[in-house]
Design goal:
The protein has 63 residues and is of the alpha+beta class. The chain is built from one helix and three strands, in the order βαββ.
C-alpha cells in the first residue's frame, strides 16, 4: 500500500513519571537535529499514588 506524503511522517512516544517531559523531549531533539518537527502533543494523568506525562512528537522522516 502506497502512503504518499503520509509515508514520510513518523512519531516518537515519550512517557515519563520520574522527571519532566521537557527534559526527555529536548534530549530527543538534540539527538535528532535534522528532523522536521510537525507538532508535539502532551498530556499528564494522575491518581492518588502517581503521575505520568506522555508526549508525542510528530515529525517528518528524512528521505
Amino acid at each position: 500500500m502506497e502512503l504518499g506524503v503520509a509515508g514520510s511522517i513518523a512519531v516518537k512516544h515519550i512517557i515519563v513519571s520520574d522527571t519532566y517531559v521537557d527534559t526527555e523531549i529536548n534530549s530527543w531533539l538534540e539527538a535528532n537535529p535534522d528532523v522536521e518537527v510537525i507538532n508535539i502533543k502532551f498530556a499528564t494523568s494522575a491518581n492518588e499514588m502517581d503521575w505520568t506525562t506522555d508526549a508525542l512528537i510528530i515529525y517528518r522522516k528524512e528521505d
